[in-house]
Design goal:
EC 2.1.1.242, alpha/beta, methyltransferase activity, methyltransferase, cytoplasm, about 250 residues
């Protein structure tokens, strides 16, 4: 595992583990460069829990954030979807044969998992070390066979794009940046607070998109709230829903 000691400087993290989780706890402790079961947890804003097969995070206010694709409390298994007629599928070019997608901001994995359900192949990038750890554990535990081929990377999106251009076989790039006034309506309020603390804001979102547009892919899609401005000019078509829209940039 990579060491991410500089990533959690502002808000310290520790790991709390039961006996059954100690081996995995030690692995994540190396990744985070943090202690396991410290004598006092009051010095740590985030507490990463490893309890048997369950992994989750709480903050100092005891707000919980957990990723579990099988428990489905965030509607990972969307029933009654419209398949290739879903807006996200149209935006990414499903009808044009695009199937391989690079998701630059996996977050809680909600859109990534839905894309897998729609028969896309997805490579995901997540920059938050804690979210990456929660996602990694969730993908390892899931019993949903269609998620077993998911490829998850821990990296900053801009760095990942610069280091991997021309090296990955993808048809389209998907980007869902965070910014101050964005609302993640799929998350309950308390989980949203923890999520924001972990992710922060994508101040470099425009730069990430600019770099994505240099990739040899057929289109780049940016998810935006309905009334938000375009992240960059050049949108070919916007696929609009009631709350969000998908801005499509055709590259080649």
């Amino acid at each position: 595992m990579s060491v991410v000691s500089d990533s959690l400087n502002s808000k310290k993290i520790c790991i709390l583990s039961d006996e059954a989780g100690l081996v995995r706890a030690a692995q994540w402790a190396e990744f985070f460069q943090c202690p396991v079961n410290p004598s006092s947890i009051d010095d740590y804003f985030f507490r990463f829990h490893v309890e048997g097969d369950r992994v989750y995070v709480r903050d100092a206010e005891k707000r919980l954030l957990e990723i579990d694709f099988d428990k489905n409390h965030l509607d990972y298994e969307r029933r009654g979807h419209q398949g290739k007629n879903e807006l996200i599928a149209k935006a990414l070019g499903y009808a044009k044969g695009c199937r391989k997608v690079l998701d630059l901001s996996v977050g809680m994995g909600i859109d990534s998992v839905f894309l897998m359900q729609l028969n896309f192949q997805v490579i995901g990038v997540e920059r938050s070390p804690v979210l990456y750890a929660l996602l990694k554990e969730a993908f390892a535990r899931t019993e949903k066979q269609y998620l077993k081929s998911y490829q998850l990377h821990f990296a900053d999106a801009l760095t990942f794009l610069r280091e991997n251009k021309g090296k990955l076989d993808v048809d389209a790039i998907y980007f869902d940046p965070m910014y101050p006034h964005k609302k993640k309506s799929a998350l309950p309020k308390q989980e949203m607070v923890v999520f924001r603390d972990l992710v922060g804001h994508d101040a470099d979102a425009a730069e990430v998109l600019k770099e994505a547009l240099t990739w040899p892919v057929r289109r780049v899609v940016v998810k935006r709230p309905m009334k938000a401005e375009e992240l960059l000019p050049g949108v070919i078509h916007s696929f609009e829903g009631k709350v969000v829209r998908y801005d499509s940039y055709v590259v080649g």
